[in-house]
Amino acid sequence: GGELVYAESLSNRASILQSQGQYDQALELYNEALGLFNKSTREGLVGYGTTLENIAVLFSDSGDQEKSENAISEALSSFTKVFGEAHLRIASVYSKKANIEFRDYKYDFAKQDYEKAWFIISSLPSPPQKEIAAILTGLARCYQSKAQFNKGDSLYDQVLGLYHDESKSDPGYINALNGL
């Protein structure tokens, strides 16, 4: 009902503040939103998890990797309650979690989470190529950080192959690759 809409509005407003670098104000609104989501409903858990994802990015952007990792882990737990393990949203959160870990120089943990994301997404029918590209690029970065350049290059080649195939049907795909 109304509380869900209000909580989502708070979270959306917080996201705007976050994009403007107003992290303290954004965090205040995010926390207020978290308190309003009814975690006994599917919609409430999804809103709660999405808000936690945003908080994780906020903490990562502001340099607090520990809080970022805690928030993304809690988001993963929330989404798993709704979707189970084998779902695109779960793969996406593992990929975000790995990216946060990578930013904190936790390359082995990042690699494990990218591999979990890859395992999930590769088992799904017709997963989005953009998500596959993000996961493979993350894995390649992990291999490069360990000076395993051949493995990293092989994954980059796969990403470029995806681009070649996807760009014919999705002109916006190049924008996704530029963001990686």
Tally of separate helices: 9
* Global outline: globular
User: Mind describing the biggest β-sheet?
Assistant: none
End-to-end CA span: 37 Å
Percentage of residues in strands: under 5%
Question: What Rg do the Cα atoms give?
Answer: 17 Å
Provide the structure class. Answer: mainly alpha
Account of the protein in words:
By secondary structure, the protein is mainly α. It is globular and about 50 Å long. The protein has 9 helices and no strands. The N and C termini lie far apart (37 Å). The longest helix has 20 residues. Helix 5 runs antiparallel to helix 6, helix 6 packs antiparallel against helix 7 and helix 7 packs antiparallel against helix 8.
Summarize the helices and strands and which ones pair or pack:
Blueprint: H1 2-19, H2 23-36, H3 42-61, H4 65-83, H5 88-103, H6 107-122, H7 129-145, H8 149-166, H9 173-178
Write a brief caption for the model:
The chain is mainly α. It is built from nine helices and no strands. The model has no long low-confidence stretch (mean pLDDT 89).
